[in-house]
Amino acid sequence: MATFLELYKSPEIVNSTDPAQRSRTMHFAIFGTTSKVEAENLAAAEVVTFYDGVPLTTYSLEFVGGDYWEGRANYSSGSQQGQSKEPGSSTLEFDTGGGTQRIQMARATISKNVPPLGTVVDFEGAINVNEDRIEGVDVTLPVFHFSITHQLPIEHEIPLGYVRGVFLLTGMMNAAVFKGFERGEVLFLGGSGRKRSEEAAELNFKFAASPNVTKLKIGEGANQVTVPVKLGWDVLWIKYMDVVPTNGKSIIKRPTQANVERVYEFGDFTVLGSI
């Protein structure tokens, strides 16, 4: 299980007589995963929107090696300049940078090329077959990260019961259509908020979206396996068997079963707007 940890050298603090020049830099590490998608999702969930009252501007994440990542989050009071802070207003921020995933089966084999006296082996769509295993390849998949910030009226408080509801919703998929995304495509990564006297309360919610897939084809030819439906945040894994082709030249891995596993529960995202 991946773990998020703020590093000992954090934070870097810059103060000024001009409040707009205050800044903070948080240094953090993530360890326990080699997956870029998992590391990005954990960073998106754990990097706070405000640090010592200074708003987040950017954050970055770098793979160091093994299962270890390092990152830094930059906070600046100057980032508040020009932003709408009117009670009742909302701000949308998004990133379509996507994520990576290792796949073992191709959508289609375009060509098979051997020397003049060589024999073609049909690996039935398997990628980077090496001896008795399929190495696969890392590909970019559509993952959409977005956050929504709401400014509440000055007199509006944030009840602890509401905060608990947001907490319990974290790590759940949308049970109904949400912001144009179909059921199961959005994962709630968590929320943050603040309320100070004589200031409007502010709420920030973070999400990640991954598209649902229907009639997903795995393998090629008569042995192709079809997955009817996979929701965006379900997990797909494939069972293979060793098969000796008719030419007897090489053992190939053939997909015999594709399982879709549900690892996240559904949640009612209308809770977020119930304050």
Please explain how this structure is put together.
This protein has helices at residues 36-46, 160-169; strands at residues 3-6, 12-14, 23-31, 50-51, 54-65, 68-76, 90-95, 99-103, 129-130, 133-134, 137-141, 144-151, 173-174, 186-194, 202-209, 213-218, 225-230, 235-243, 252-261, 266-267. The protein folds into 2 domains: 1-83; 85-275, no CATH class. The mean pLDDT is 83. The longest helix has 11 residues, at 36-46. The strands form 7 sheets. Strands 1, 2, 3, 4, 5 and 6 form a 6-stranded antiparallel β-sheet that branches. The chain has 2 helices and 20 strands. With 275 residues, it is mainly beta.
Number of individual domains:
2
Total number of strands: 20
Characterize the biggest β-sheet.
6 strands, antiparallel
Share of β-strand residues = 35-45%
Order of helices and strands: EEEHEEEEEEEEEHEEEEEEEE
Distance between the termini: 33 Å
Structural class assignment: mainly beta
- Averaged pLDDT, please? 83
Helix % is under 10%
Q: What is the overall number of helices?
A: 2
Name the poorly predicted regions: none
Rg from alpha-carbon coordinates: 24 Å
Shape, per Cα inertia axes: elongated
